Structures are given as C-alpha cells and as structure tokens.
Amino acid sequence: MNNWNRDQMAARVARDIPEGAYVNLGIGLPTLVANHLPKDREIFLHSENGILGMGPAPATGEEDFDLINAGKQPVTLLPGGAYFHHADSFGMMRGGHLDICVLGAFQVSVAGDLANWHTGAVDAIPAVGGAMDLAIGAKKTYVMMEHLTKRGESKIVNACTYPLTGIACVSRIYSDLAVIDITPQGLQVVDIIDGLSLAELQKISGVSLKQKH
Amino acid sequence: MNNWNRDQMAARVARDIPEGAYVNLGIGLPTLVANHLPKDREIFLHSENGILGMGPAPATGEEDFDLINAGKQPVTLLPGGAYFHHADSFGMMRGGHLDICVLGAFQVSVAGDLANWHTGAVDAIPAVGGAMDLAIGAKKTYVMMEHLTKRGESKIVNACTYPLTGIACVSRIYSDLAVIDITPQGLQVVDIIDGLSLAELQKISGVSLKQKH
Amino acid sequence: MINKIVASVEAALADIQDGSTVMIGGFGGAGQPTELIDGLIAHGARNLTVVNNNAGNGETGLAALLGAGQVRKIICSFPRQADSQIFDGLYRAGKLELELVPQGNLAERIRAAGAGIGAFFSPTGYGTDLAKGKEIREINGRMYVLEMPIHADVALVKAETGDRWGNLVYRKAARNFGPIMASAAKVTIASVHSVVELGALDPEVVVTPGIFVQRVVKVPRSASGAAPLKKEAA
Amino acid sequence: MINKIVASVEAALADIQDGSTVMIGGFGGAGQPTELIDGLIAHGARNLTVVNNNAGNGETGLAALLGAGQVRKIICSFPRQADSQIFDGLYRAGKLELELVPQGNLAERIRAAGAGIGAFFSPTGYGTDLAKGKEIREINGRMYVLEMPIHADVALVKAETGDRWGNLVYRKAARNFGPIMASAAKVTIASVHSVVELGALDPEVVVTPGIFVQRVVKVPRSASGAAPLKKEAA
Q1: H or E segment to which residue D88 belongs
Q2: Contact call for residues D185 and D213 (beta carbons, < 8 A)
Q3: Residue A120: predicted pLDDT
Q4: How, if at all, do strands A76-83 and A51-55 pair?
Q5: Which chain D positions have a beta carbon within 8 Å of C203's beta carbon?
Q6: pLDDT for the residue B213
Q7: Quick count: other Cβ atoms within 10 Å of Cβ A150?
C-alpha cells in the first residue's frame, strides 16, 4: 500500500472544492491545497489578516512586506480581490460566510471535535491565532492531516486528549490513508488508498468506520 | 424681559463648542446651531447616516440626493470629511467618540433624564430614529428647547412624565430663558436672559435652581 | 467563471419566497433600491418581514410595497414621517406589525448577524420603553440591554458600482445600511449604476467584498440616482 | 485650525504614562509601527499592558520592547513563533503575564470597545480551555461565550497616508488591526509615510476617520515600508 503524499492529499482536497467557493486554507499542510486548485475553477481564497481573493506567491524579488498570508509568507492579490480590517475579516469567518475551511490537526474525534492548537504539554507556550475562529466559522471545516502520529497512534480518536480547538466542528477528514466524513451516523469512509481495506483502516484508526454509500 | 429667539439660542450653544470638537446636531432646533458656529473654529459635524465633516446646505440646484443629513435635507461635505456605514456611524456615537450632542426635548428631569422621542399619546405612532443612541453616546449631551410648553408648563421637571429617551444623560440645557447645568449637586444656572431673576426663573421652572459660581 | 451579474431585476428576485425576511437598504431616499423594491412588488411575494430604517415615504418605493399588502411586519427605527401615510394607515388598522428599534441598535443587530455574534449588550435604550422585557446587566458601572442579531433571507441594497464577483462600492451617504445588510442576509441582491471589469475596483476601496453579494443587477441612474431632491425625499 | 500632525515620534509619545494599556497594530511585520515602538522604548514607560496579535519576533520592534522590561502583561493570540525567543524567555521566567485570546475574539473585543458594546456572545472558543471561567449561553441552539471589550489608553498604528484631521488610509494587508485599535484607545498615534493636504483623501476611501486619531507622525518608508521580506518577517 502507498500512502498519499502531501501533494496527493492536497490535490484530493482541491478536487472537492467547487467553483465559486469561499475558502480559508490554514497554516501548514492545508496551504498546499492552493497549488492544486483546478485552473478552470474560480475559487476565492480568504486570509484571516484581511484579504479576499488571495493569489499565489509572488516571483522572487516581487515580494511585498504588506501583502502576506496568515503564515506571514508573501502572497499576491487577484484582480477582484479586496482588503479589510481584522474585525471585518473575522466577522466574515464567524458569520458563516466561508464555505470551506481546511485545517491541520493533532486529533479529530468521532464527534468532529478538533484539537489542533496546543499539545497540552506543561512547558509548552500556547499560541492559538485564528484556529478557534476558523474551526467553528466556515460552513464546512475539513481537516487535512497524517492519519497516524509519528509514534503510530491514530489521530482519529473517540475523544480528544489534546486541548480542544472546537467542538463538533469537523465535517470531513483528508488523511494520507483515506477521506472520511464525520456524520451523525458516525464516520463514513469516502475514499481509501489502493491496497488498504476498510477493515485494515479501522484497525489502524482504532475507531468505528463504515463505507459511505 | 426678552426671551432668546431661536437664532440667539443657537448662537449661545455654538459659542460653547470649542475648536476641534466632534459634534452631532439633532433634528429640528439643534440644526440651527450649524449656522452659528464661529468661522474661526474648525468643528467636526457628524451625521448619523454616515458622515463626518458635514458642511452647510448646498446652493440651490446643487443638491445631491445621496448626500443628506439626519433630517433628510441636502448637505455638503467639507474637504477632510469621510463617509462610512451605519454600524460604524453608530459605533462612533455609542463608543463615546463624539464630544457633544445637541438634542431637542419634550422634557428634561433634574437628574438629566431626557424625554424627546414620544409624547406617549395612545394613538401616536412612535418613531425613535437615532434619539436613544444620541442621548447616551456623546461625552456631553446638551438639550436645546423652549423653556415652557405652549401651555406654559415647565419642560424642566422633577421626573419626566413622557416616555424616556435616556437616563441621566443630559449635562446642560439651553432654553430660551437660561443656560442650566445638570450636576450631581442639582441644577445650576449658568446664564439667564436680561430682566429675569433667578427667583423668577425658579418659579417658572418649578424645580430647584442655584446660581452657578 | 463566476458571474454574479444578473440580466434583469425580475431574474434577480425570482426565487424570493413568501414569508421571507427582507432587508432593504436606504436612509430615507438615499440608498433606497427603488428598482428592486418595484421588482419585489411586481414579484408579489407576500407575508414579508421588512427591515429598513423607515417605513416608506410618499406612495412609491417601500411605501408602495406596504400599500400592496405584501408586508406582515416591519422592523425599523423611524416609521412616522410627514409623508408616511401608507404605513400610518396600515398600522392604525392593525394590518402591519411594528418592531421599533433605536437606529444604532438596529444597525448593530444587523451587523451582529453578519458577523456571527450571538447577542450583545448595548447601552442604548436602557431604562426606556424600547428595552421593556429585555435582559439588562450592569457592566463596569454602566447599564446595558441585551440585543439579538437580525438575520434576513434576502437583502436588497443599492450600490454605485459592482463587478462580476459581487464587489461593491457605494456613493456618498447612500452607503448607510447597505454594507451591513449585505452581510446579514442569505441572499444579497445589489442594484448598481455601473458594472466594471474585474480588477477595476481598487482593492483598497471595495466597501462590500463579493463574499456578501449573490446577485448584481444594473439599473439606470436616472430612476434612482443622485439628483436634485425630489418631492419624496423630503 | 486643527492640526494633528506632530513633528516627531518623541513628541507624539511624550505623555504616555507608566501602567498604560497600549495597543500596537500589526500582524507579524505587516502594519507593525516600528518607529513608534522604538519611540516607546526610548520613552521608557514601564509596567505596560500591550495588546498585539503576536508577542514580538526576532530582537527588534515589539520583541525589543518586551526585552527592555517595559511590559507587564501581553494580550495576544499568537505569541509562540520560531523567533519569539524574547517573549519565550520572559514568559518562562514568570516575568510577563499572558492573556491568550483567539484572534477573532481579540479583534471583536477591540472593536466592541471602540463601538461602545458592553460585552458580546461569541461562538469562538466555546468548550475550550480559553473559555474556562467565562459565562456561556445557548442562543438559538448554538453555544456562545461572553467576551468583554478591550479598551486601551494608547493605540500605536501604522498607516500609509494621513492628513491634519487625522484621516488615515492603509496599505494592503497592513491594514489589519489598525482601524479597530484606533477606535478603542483614548489616544491614537498613527505613523504614516505620507501626509497630504486636507481633501486629498477621497472621502469614500478614508478607512479611519480622524475622529479616532489624535496624533499623526510622518516616518520614512525605508525603515518599515513594503519591501522584500526581511528576516524578522518570517
């Protein structure tokens, strides 16, 4: 079996973003999704720091220190984009105007609880940024993450042990092994890598899974 | 004794508005104050419908239907003025950013309660507009009104009988007979028309008055 | 390609349902989307709840919508005016429910809906009849009233210029309720006097980003634009 | 004549008191008023509470202010970064109090202060450690957390262009916290790269009206303006 690599995961997410969607891509892995958005679809990228219609990274030497994304990397603005202040930007998010938000995660529970901001380690310095606003703001929150921790533990859990970012907010998980919907009827596997069975995926995951019909 | 006329009242209010003040002039009598602002002072007029730096009425034929004041009369914008939306405009008011608001009134109580939006008549159709926001928003709320009703009753009262607009919000009254501060120590007469004594004013007013020192 | 420009007012309004809550921009005549209101009258949707600062002036625009008997309830701050006779008549006859809201609370409740705020404490109206029955609270020595957001199914707003992504700019004080209403409705329909190419609007000056706008329809300026004051603007 | 233009950073900051709450604009490097922060370090005010999205990067700007021991408490959303070593050291040593706030609640709390809102219910953070001890409420089937406004004595913001009435426009995403912080402070001091005559700023595009700004000081663009990314912007 071959796990999807990061670009394959990003492409898989990108495939599911429809034309006209307003989308926020979280810091880290989700940022890659921007590189895979179908060129024939107009999709509107929102950045928490007051940008709608965010474009790709600028050419070397063209970077503008006043035009950065949430990860503080230089970006561009598409024709038709707009700037606004922080309260308006988070109002946009909190008010349910974004169609999709894609976030990384430490853990996602079967109920859709998300833990992605803090390991809870006693000596760790916490930092939350926009994670909690993003988790609960969009119409759909997707998580994009490795299926297992480096120690081989499932990041899909019955109940999060890490501090929560949001409750019952995740609707879909894109991992390197599968695409899984979180539904009131439990986890439903939408897609799975070649060579891996549902039974094997369930064993790895340690949570109850069903095939989506 | 000669009561101050409307223009004299307006001039008296205008005299007390310092350079650099941000001011909202309510509909009706207070609107006249704009005509009397000293030409050598820069004073910023706010209009609730999203204007700061409002100028005088335009020349005939120059009226612009998109540039009106709270009373829906055509106005102009001074160089340095700005437009903004209604939530920002009332945030400006409610957030205490205006220095002075001048309002008309049916009644003002000795505690500074204001009644200016509704007579309370059973068959009257109510309309409040921005009155309640204006009453409590500015750093100082001044009332400008005839001292007596048409039936000769004092509009300065121990307790308002008309429905309230705001509680303990008026700091000064400019009437056609006197200028009166509302203080924690009671009403203090700042100015009075020629030929009227404090005793006479108190008798007319039906409330306790002291000379301001 | 996303193109929010709609060919006609009729097409823009076609799916409005009976019983909808409809926000209508404008402060008196400035920013009133006259063509969209006329379109709503032609459409005929009934049992509407309308949110507007006023309750119609004269016999046209919002007044005509009320007069057509399409409105069940109006949420506004300043219904009574010298020329609000249509509202007055319906209200006195008990045919129109009125929710009277101080103007700043009206604006903030609309803004709260757009920004996902569950409720907020406002100092405006404390101790008055308009706060009766509402929760009050003392915060840092000042009294506040709890106010709830006002959401809408549809917002009808008048802007000056738009593009195919739905970005809008307004004109002078006609901006008023437009930007906040656009944010508070499921479907926002904007009339504009000018449609420009994508990128023609400076991203620094876009007032309503397209995310808040579902449909844009161009209307001629003559019918509703800036002009010497008309009788109905009094 | 009102003229809010001040000749120097030093003069603009002169009356800042020990113990003040100081809002500082910026998201990372964009919109960070570097010259005003340097001025505050030179001024030497101590025991400050600082409100910023971050807690300093590298060894300059806000990081240097922390390093100078002038800050007692910081209210921010994202202190921990690869180059937040000065904050990290002070925090671990117990020399700096941290109030960690989700970024949207931070922005809305600042906006609430500017807009005279007593408190508001936000859905953000419900059920998390950052809502511990806060009042919660179910409204229309959704859970919310009561959040309080954040007021400041002073706001230091970076804008692009200003005039003598204090009107401001910003540049691109450097706008971020500037407009809301300007509204939430008793005294707002803005650095600009350009001062223009009154009336030169289009009234349709003024982002921060002068009512929110007490002092404007011009600083050269080279020191803080848009440029190829610098190391501290990572």
Answers
A1: helix D85-92
A2: no
A3: 83
A4: antiparallel
A5: 172
A6: 84
A7: 6
Chain pair A-D, CB pairs under 8 angstroms: 157
Catalytic positions of A are 48
Rg (CA), chain C: 18
pLDDT in tens, B13-63: 999 999 999 999 999 999 999 999 999 999 999 999 999 999 999 999 999
Which two three-digit tokens encode residue A171? 């609707």
In the structure encoding, which two tokens stand for residue B47, read together?
């209009």
Q: Which residues of A touch C209 (CB under 8 A)?
A: 52, 82, 84, 92
- E strand spans, chain D: 5-6, 21-24, 48-51, 71-76, 97-100, 119-122, 136-139, 142-147, 152-158, 161-162, 168-169, 185-192, 194-195, 215-218
Chain D residue whose CA is closest to B97: D211
Binary contact (B128, C102; C-beta < 8 A): yes
pLDDT tens figures, D91-150: 999 999 999 999 999 999 999 999 999 999 999 999 999 999 999 999 999 999 999 999
CB contact under 8 A, C30 and B66: yes
Q: What is the ipTM of this complex?
A: 0.97
C122 and B94 in contact by Cβ < 8 A? yes
Q: What is the 3-state secondary structure (H, E, C) of chain B?
A: CCCCCHHHHHHHHHHCCCCCCEEEECCCHHHHHHHHCCCCCCCEEEECCCEEEEECCCCCCCCCCCCECCCCCECEEEEEEEECCHHHHHHHHHCCCCCEEEECCCEEECCCCEECCCCCCCCCCCCCCCHHHHHHHCCEEEEEECCECCCCCECEECCCCCCCCECCCEEEEEECCEEEEEECCEEEEEEECCCCCHHHHHHHHCCCEEECC
Residue D121 in contact with partner chain A when CB distance is under 8 A: no
For B102-124, what is the mean pLDDT?
Answer: 94
pTM: 0.97
Amino acid, res. C72: R
Residue numbers of chain A with a pLDDT score lower than 50: none
Question: Distance between CA atoms of A85 and D21, rounded to whole angstroms?
Answer: 21
Could you tell me if C209 lies within 8 Å of chain A, comparing CB atoms? yes
Q: How far is C209 from chain A (nearest CA, A)?
A: 6
Name every residue in A having a CB less than 8 A away from some CB of C: 19-20, 22, 42, 44, 46, 52-53, 77, 79-84, 87, 90-98, 137
Window 47-106 of D: residues touching C by CB (8 A cutoff) are none
Q: Is B48 a catalytic residue?
A: yes
Backbone angles phi, psi at A128, to 5 degrees: -110, -30
C-alpha of A129 from chain center: 15
**Which regions of D40-167 does DSSP assign to beta strands (E)?**
48-51, 71-76, 97-100, 119-122, 136-139, 142-147, 152-158, 161-162
Interface residue D229 vs chain C (CB under 8 A): no
Summarised one tens digit per residue, pLDDT across range C76-111 is 999 998 899 999 999 999 999 999 999 999 999 999
pLDDT recorded at residue D115: 98
Q: How far is A95 from chain C (nearest CA, A)?
A: 4
Q: Is the pLDDT of residue C226 over 80?
A: no
The DSSP H or E segment spanning A198 is: helix A198-205
* Closest chain C C-alpha to A45 CA, distance in angstroms: 10
CA dist., res. B76 & res. D5, Å (int): 25
Q: What is the distance in angstroms between the Cα of A183 and the nearest Cα belonging to chain C?
A: 24
**Quick one: closest CA in B to C87, which residue?**
B125
